[in-house]
């Protein structure tokens, strides 16, 4: 019985130590998520304004630009997967990697070869472990992304797109990232970045959905100036969405771990009390039995 009590005490102490760690990580994630959400909300209006400007130029200038032109044949498709550098975030990384692989299967079914670009150590580790080739990766800047990372990613992707699938580049680019919906929900999302999809307004919508623009200089030069900014802003917004989603997923996972530690402590405490009561009962029975034996021997 004494050995059993020691085992339960050790398990209770271990669960209490684990709870301290998970509770601290939960609080750290909670403090970081507010800053991450602030950055997402701050980048949203700029990203939407740039997207609207690019759509307006593409719609009203009738420019045949390389970044907006649909290829005759899609030979290679770039899939950019946004994961995190650290784990302990529940299904955050596994669901986004699964979403990227499902998109790759869809791309293959259309007769195109998927080409992977990876962001975050978790995606890199997954692909290396399964020996799946990828073109380039970026690690170390997922918790609090910087704009220069988005600039570098955008430059690499645009260079690959300019080369084209026939010359070892790509014919289209997809972004796969976790979109922050709420503190409890982070939904994987796939967005085609290039070629740029221009959404025309429906007939029933107001004809003033876009203002009437006059371009000076011409539309091609305006698009040349706007499209790099558009690509960088979309990638940066995806980085920020992924970072906010990761912190929310970490907070949720660590809260669940703390709750599980509480349950373990309660269960082991009950088992320890039962073992202690059984030991006391056994000792009392032995004392009573010894007393009866002495009384009967007289």
UniProtKB/TrEMBL annotation:
Gene Ontology MF terms: ATP binding; proton-transporting ATP synthase activity, rotational mechanism
Keywords carried by this UniProt record: ATP synthesis, Cell membrane, CF(1), Coiled coil, Hydrogen ion transport, Ion transport, Membrane, Transport
GO annotation, biological process: proton motive force-driven plasma membrane ATP synthesis
Subcellular location: Cell membrane; Membrane
Matching HAMAP family: ATP_synth_gamma_bact
Function: Produces ATP from ADP in the presence of a proton gradient across the membrane. The gamma chain is believed to be important in regulating ATPase activity and the flow of protons through the CF(0) complex.
Protein topology in the membrane: Peripheral membrane protein
Family, similarity comment: Belongs to the ATPase gamma chain family.
UniProt cross-references to InterPro entries, sorted A to Z: ATP_synth_F1_ATPase_gsu, ATP_synth_F1_gsu
Origin species: Microbacterium mangrovi
Protein's name according to its UniProt entry: ATP synthase gamma chain
């Amino acid at each position: 019985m004494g050995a059993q009590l020691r085992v339960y005490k050790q398990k209770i102490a271990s669960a209490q130590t684990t709870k301290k760690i998970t509770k601290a990580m939960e609080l750290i994630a909670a403090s970081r998520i507010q800053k991450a959400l602030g950055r997402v909300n701050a980048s949203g209006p700029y990203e939407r304004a740039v997207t609207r400007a690019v759509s307006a130029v593409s719609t009203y200038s009738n420019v045949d630009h390389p970044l907006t032109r649909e290829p005759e044949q899609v030979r290679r498709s770039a899939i950019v997967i946004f994961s995190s550098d650290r784990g302990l975030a529940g299904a955050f990384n596994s669901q986004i990697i699964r979403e990227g692989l499902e998109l790759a299967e869809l791309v293959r079914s259309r007769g195109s070869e998927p080409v992977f670009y990876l962001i975050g150590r978790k995606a890199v580790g997954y692909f290396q472990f399964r020996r799946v080739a990828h073109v380039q990766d970026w690690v170390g800047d997922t918790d609090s992304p910087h704009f220069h990372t988005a600039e570098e990613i955008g430059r690499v992707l645009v260079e690959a797109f300019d080369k084209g699938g026939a010359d070892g580049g790509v014919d289209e680019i997809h972004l796969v990232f976790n979109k922050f919906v709420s503190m409890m929900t982070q939904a994987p999302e796939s967005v085609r970045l290039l070629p740029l999809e221009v959404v025309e307004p429906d007939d029933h919508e107001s004809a003033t959905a876009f203002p009437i623009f006059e371009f000076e200089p011409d539309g091609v030069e305006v698009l040349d100036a706007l499209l790099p900014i558009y690509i960088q802003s979309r990638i940066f917004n995806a980085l920020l969405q992924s970072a906010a989603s990761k912190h929310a997923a970490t907070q949720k996972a660590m809260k669940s771990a703390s709750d599980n530690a509480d349950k373990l402590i309660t269960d082991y405490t009950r088992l320890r009390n039962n073992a202690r009561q059984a030991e006391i009962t056994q000792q009392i029975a032995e004392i009573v039995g010894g007393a009866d034996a002495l009384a009967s021997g007289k």
